[in-house]
Design goal:
The chain is built from 1 helix and no strands. It has one helix at 8-40.
Amino acid sequence: MMDAEPTPAMVAFYKRRTKEHIERVRRCLAVMADVTNTRMH
């Protein structure tokens, strides 16, 4: 267990990782939506 405050480097790392994850999910959802739309028409 860590009870110390996170360092700025740790915060920056998590922020970047979260942003990258959001981008990946957004792209995946866009692709799935595109596939769904293509099948519907």
